[in-house]
Amino acid sequence: MPPKQIRPDATPAARAVALPDDWAATPLTVVMPTYNEAGNLPGMAEALMALPLPGLRLLVVDDSSPDGTGDLAEEYAGRFGADRMAVLHRAGKEGLGRAYAAGMARAVADGARYVLQMDADGSHPVAKVPQLLGVALSTGAGVTIGSRYVQGGSLSEAWGAHRKLLSRWANAYAGTILGTRVRDITGGFNLWREDALRAIDLASVDSAGYSFQVEMKYRALRRGQGIIEVPIHFEDRTVGESKMNLMVQLESVAMPWRLRARSRH
Ligand SMILES: Nc1nc2c(ncn2[C@@H]2O[C@H](COP(=O)(O)OP(=O)(O)O[C@H]3O[C@H](CO)[C@@H](O)[C@H](O)[C@@H]3O)[C@@H](O)[C@H]2O)c(=O)[nH]1
Predict the structure, then answer these.
(1) pLDDT single digits (tens) 109-157
(2) Where does the chain cross the membrane (predicted)?
(3) Which helix (H) or strand (E) holds 176?
(4) Which end of the chain, C or N, has fewer beta carbons within 10 A?
(5) Where are the domains of the chain?
(6) 3-class SS at 55?
(7) Who contacts 213 (Cβ-Cβ below 8 Å, separation ≥6)?
(8) pLDDT bracket for residue 244 (50, 70, 90)
(9) CATH T-level topology, domain 12-264
């Protein structure tokens, strides 16, 4: 089946469809991988719980962070209640992709209708979550991307020219090899409709690290899912540090070629 794509820069205004009255109660699980995010997690959890989305649930996926993020997450889950927040504890650090695959599978098994991927470090805007859900529901998109690279999207001013260029290059690199028009294919703020996720066998996803973002979107396109991009402002983290390393970067360079080769046979 040829990949189907909604115009990447389509906005709610461009495809307005009336939302049902109870749309804010849609069962939505935010899957948040954490590794040493004790300085960021409390603020993220509080902000998400304060959103006017009674159907929102937070699932933290912690890889036994040495800084105690897992215990802290349990404390917050106890405070907010099991119907609103839960923690998936994993034995050790296996990479962002593996953590997401486990968390997303759990969210779907637990009955989420939508699953949102979100970093714990404050780089993805919490205030945009209702809009992402509204756009997803009103357009029927399988994947709704909080995008830095559509009109209206932007990057942290704290990023220097070199880092901005590298990020744009990474997107152009993966997009060109895979022949997609998705503008933010490397981005990590993505909302999935439950059946779009089910169509991807999460256990068979190859990426251990950040190339998970590219692999998942490419697989969704190959299965004919509509993808829509909503502009966001991406902030740089102010607490803790990125877990990006050389292995992660090498995997991101190789993965588009592997995906392309595989799709040919
Ligand atoms: N459980 C778990 N969580 C992890 C791991 N590695 C990273 N994380 C968590 O995943 C989130 C993102 O990790 P960062 O290391 O902060 O990512 P980044 O460098 O800011 O990269 C972000 O932007 C990229 C695009 O520019 C994205 O490709 C990437 O996925 C991420 O969203 C954070 O909440 C971090 O704690 C891991 O091995 N295990």
Answers:
(1) 999 999 999 999 999 999 999 999 999 999 999 999 999 999 999 999 8
(2) none
(3) helix 161-178
(4) C
(5) 12-264
(6) coil
(7) 117, 185, 186, 187, 188, 190
(8) confident
(9) Spore Coat Polysaccharide Biosynthesis Protein SpsA; Chain A (3.90.550)
Give the per-residue pLDDT at 248.
Answer: 85
Is the pLDDT at 14 greater than 60? The verdict is no
Ramachandran assignment for 35, one of left (phi > 0), alpha (psi -120 to 50 degrees), beta (any other): beta
Lookup result for tokens 């799709």? 263
Q: Quick one: which of 97, 134, 112, 138 has its CA closest to 197?
A: 112
Q: Which of 163, 218, 243 to mutate to test the pocket of ligand 1 (most atoms within 8 A of CB)?
A: 243
Q: How many beta carbons lie within 10 A of that of residue 182, not counting itself?
A: 27
CA distances from 51 to 43, 48, 125, 194 (A): 13, 5, 12, 21
> Would the ipTM clear 0.85, i.e. be above it?
yes
Q: Which residues line ligand 1 (CB under 6 A)?
A: 33-35, 37, 61-63, 93-96, 99, 119-121, 123, 167, 186-188, 210, 213, 242-244
Which of 61, 60, 59 is CA-nearest to residue 92?
61
Please state which of the ranges 60-69, 125-134, 225-234, 248-257 shows the lowest mean pLDDT: 248-257
What 3-state class would DSSP assign to 125?
A: coil
Sign for the CA dihedral angle at 33, 39, 45, 47 comes to negative
State which amino acid sits at residue 120. Answer: A
What's the rounded Cα separation, in Å, for the pair 249 and 255? 10
Q: How confident is the model at residue 4 (pLDDT cuts 50, 70, 90)?
A: very low
